């Protein structure tokens, strides 16, 4: 079996698997080396944070550059049921990110094909999956 260009499908499959394996090896090597560098950066960041705390400063200018600490606050909930109720009671939907849960929406539409939300856009595309023999 060959495609329109004459290249046999088995050769295309073999080439795909080979390139995919090369990418996987490269990705694994990158992740390992990047992980090492990330751990080094974390160690240095902690030392700089300790410096700021120990010297009671928010920023430091050195001959090599400037470093400063900032406070970053994160919020999350461990009780989505109560959070949803809170959001509805206070009419504050802006507390949520604007995105759709793909799995749940797909299931809803399969179960309720007549209930199509206005403004919903759907994109369907084919992909290729290749597995080893």
Task: Describe this structure as you would to a colleague.
It is a single chain. The chain contains three helices and two strands. The protein has 133 residues and is mostly helical. The mean pLDDT is 91. It has helices at 9-55, 80-90, 102-111; strands at 59-62, 65-68. The chain has a two-stranded antiparallel sheet. It is flat. Strand 1 and strand 2 form a beta hairpin. The two termini are 17 Å apart.
Entry keywords:
133 residues; mainly alpha; two-stranded antiparallel sheet
Sum this structure up briefly:
The protein has helices spanning 9-55, 80-90, 102-111, and strands spanning 59-62, 65-68. By secondary structure, the protein is mainly alpha-helical.
Instruction: List unreliable stretches of 5+ residues.
Output: none
Specify Rg, calculated over alpha carbons.
Answer: 26 Å
User: How many H/I helical runs?
Assistant: 3
- DSSP strand count: 2
Shape: flat
The structure class reads mainly alpha
Mean pLDDT comes to 91
Order of helices and strands: HEEHH
Q: Layout of SSEs?
A:
Elements: H1 9-55, E1 59-62, E2 65-68, H2 80-90, H3 102-111
Antiparallel strand pairs: 1-2
């Amino acid at each position: 079996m060959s495609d329109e260009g004459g290249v046999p499908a088995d050769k295309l499959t073999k080439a795909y698997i080979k390139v995919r394996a090369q990418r996987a090896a490269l990705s694994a090597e990158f992740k390992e080396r990047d992980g090492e560098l990330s751990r080094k950066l974390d160690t240095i960041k902690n030392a700089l944070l300790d410096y700021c705390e120990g010297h009671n400063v928010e920023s430091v200018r050195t001959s090599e550059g400037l470093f400063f600490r900032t406070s970053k606050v994160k919020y999350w909930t461990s009780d989505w049921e109560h959070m949803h109720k809170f959001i509805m009671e206070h009419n504050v939907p802006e507390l949520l990110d604007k995105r759709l849960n793909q799995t749940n929406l797909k299931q809803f539409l399969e179960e309720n094909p007549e209930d199509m939300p206005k403004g919903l856009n759907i994109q369907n595309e084919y992909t290729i999956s290749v597995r080893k023999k």
